[in-house]
């Protein structure tokens, strides 16, 4: 991917959804924009490692983004009695109180969840019309059928209804690792989609782990741990969200 930096300050502020380019120019002229604690001027350029601040603007907000490895049994939404959710898991950490999970992982699944206080990216991440990739590693209890990859990739009726009325999932990419393990890349996120797809194809899931959302990878992040998304990784992520 081409280098996004250096970037003109008005383009940067518009890209971050802080203002329009014209609005950014207005903020600069009013001497409210600072780059590394130095007053920005029209035409200033921002590098990847620079810290950009809007001072004297009560409406400005610092947005943060984290990758979190959700453990099994942690609830992302709609907590029921006797269950615990992500906020409970994170209440004794250094994370800001106003961060929230984007998207869901069911109770019995684990892996990557993005935490943020930036509600502007919710639709960009969750709306299937944007076709953002999410990658999962799935282990099954029974041996994968010989036509499993072909069936999954073509789209699966996950509602148990006739083809003309049941929902057929979008095409996806499947990589068979061994007789009981495969990776799948989806660009949509129906409720329990992978479990429903596998069930329709007579495969029982033993373990489901989300490894990647767009360019954000889980990597070696331990269960229950989090890391900040920043620098070039964040720049690419936000660029993908808004393109």
Automatic annotation (TrEMBL):
The record, for SUPFAM superfamilies, names: Alpha-L RNA-binding motif, Pseudouridine synthase
The RNA-binding S4 domain, residue ranges: 7-72
Query: Organism's domain of life?
Result: Bacteria
EC code: 5.4.99.-
Q: Which GO terms describe its biological process?
A: enzyme-directed rRNA pseudouridine synthesis
Q: Which GO terms describe its molecular function?
A: RNA binding; rRNA pseudouridine synthase activity
Q: Recite the UniProt keywords alphabetically.
A: Isomerase, RNA-binding
A Pfam family annotated for this chain is S4
Q: Which family does it belong to?
A: Belongs to the pseudouridine synthase RsuA family.
Q: What is this protein called?
A: Pseudouridine synthase
Q: What is the scientific name of the source organism?
A: Candidatus Nomurabacteria bacterium CG22_combo_CG10-13_8_21_14_all_32_8
């Amino acid at each position: 991917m081409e280098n996004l930096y250096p970037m003109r300050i008005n383009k940067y502020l518009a890209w971050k959804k802080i203002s329009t380019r014209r609005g950014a120019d207005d903020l600069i002229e009013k001497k409210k924009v600072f780059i590394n604690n130095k007053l920005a001027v029209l035409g200033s350029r921002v590098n990847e490692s620079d810290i950009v601040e809007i001072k004297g603007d009560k409406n400005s907000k610092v947005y943060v983004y984290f990758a979190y490895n959700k453990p099994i049994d942690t609830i992302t939404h709609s907590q029921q009695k006797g269950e615990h959710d992500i906020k409970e898991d994170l209440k004794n950490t250094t994370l800001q109180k106003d961060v929230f999970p984007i998207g869901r992982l069911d109770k019995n699944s684990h892996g990557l969840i993005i935490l943020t206080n930036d509600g502007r990216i919710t639709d960009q991440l969750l709306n299937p019309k944007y076709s953002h990739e999410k990658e999962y590693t799935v282990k099954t209890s029974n041996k994968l059928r010989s036509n499993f990859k072909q069936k999954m990739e073509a789209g699966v009726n996950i509602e148990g209804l006739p083809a003309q009325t049941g929902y057929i999932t979008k095409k996806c990419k499947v990589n068979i690792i061994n007789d009981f393990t495969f990776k799948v890349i989806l660009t949509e996120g129906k409720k329990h989609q992978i479990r429903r797809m596998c069930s329709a194809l007579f495969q029982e899931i033993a373990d489901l782990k989300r490894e990647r959302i767009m360019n954000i990878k889980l990597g070696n992040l331990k269960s229950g741990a989090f890391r900040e998304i920043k620098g070039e990784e964040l720049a690419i992520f936000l660029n993908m969200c808004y393109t």
